[in-house]
Amino acid sequence: MGTVGPSGGGVLRLPGLHGYAVEFSPYWPGRVACAASQYYGIAGCGTLAVLEQNEAGVVLLKSFDWNDGLFDVTWSENNEHVLITSSGDGSLQIWDATKTKGPLQVYKEHTQEAYSVDWSQTRGEQLVVSGSWDQTAKLWDPAVGKSLCTFKGHEGVIYSTIWSPHIPGCFASASGDQTLRVWDVKAPGVKLVIPAHQAEILSCDWCKYDENLLVTGAVDCSLKGWDLRNIRQPVFILLGHTYAIRRVKFSPFHATLLASCSYDFTVRFWDFSRPNPLLETVEHHTEFTCGLDLSLHNRGQV
């Protein structure tokens, strides 16, 4: 398992662990959280690693162990030291990186693997959404010990739940039922159902510059862009990966730029506004590439 940044670059190996998710800190430039599991998450324990890139390379600042695999991680938006992970035992864990041990709290409601967790980025609300293989998404206030709401409707496992960076209380979910769904926490049912692929959808993300634009990545090796005002057909289709796309992220700096990683071991960079959208293919990894994030602080750091 390693982390790579094109500007400067760096590798850190954590023997015996497979990285599932990485997320840059919104507070500290160069600081990254990584959710990892033993034995590809099938058995064994999980580790939350907090890493930092400095002149010496990538260094491990802190690590916390959990008794099941960790599949996703998100930083708090109101405390620079707090993180939440989601686990194979269906629970969410809240950690404080200044503490020697943890977690601070554990929320156990999902009945199967909690595969996704995301902290809302819109101001004025401190909400967390989780997605699970039990086919539900749950809404949490980290200060409250139980979920505020459960969202049902997916007919397959949920792989990804992502808050809109524009619309308060709005999130998207991607599922093995081949749909992308958009939800509003103030309304009980699903807001929008998009039959986005004819394959399991493993990842989705919102454009940082257009509140109506989302991207999905699926087992069919394609990335598709969706305009929520007209969902009959995708606004773009990006082809090039040779195995399932595990994660996709829009650039925080460019409206038409995005990155994807795949079980084909590659990370690819795209500009969907170009006739030839594939900008670069990075082949640094020698295993499934599962986690991907783009720095909010350092343009070009991945």
Automatic annotation (TrEMBL):
Main location: cytoplasm
Gene Ontology cellular component list: cytosol; peroxisomal matrix
Sorted UniProt keywords: Cytoplasm, Peroxisome, Protein transport, Repeat, Transport, WD repeat
Placement of WD repeats on the sequence: 73-96, 107-141, 151-186, 194-230, 238-280
GO biological process, one term: protein import into peroxisome matrix
CDD domains: WD40
Pfam families, alphabetized: WD40
Keyword Mitochondrion belongs to the record: no
SUPFAM superfamilies listed in its UniProt record: WD40 repeat-like
PROSITE patterns, sorted: WD_REPEATS_1 (PS00678), WD_REPEATS_2 (PS50082), WD_REPEATS_REGION (PS50294)
Compartments (UniProt record): Cytoplasm, Cytosol; Peroxisome matrix
A molecular function (GO) term: peroxisome matrix targeting signal-2 binding
Family assignment from sequence similarity: Belongs to the WD repeat peroxin-7 family.
Protein name in UniProt: Peroxin-7
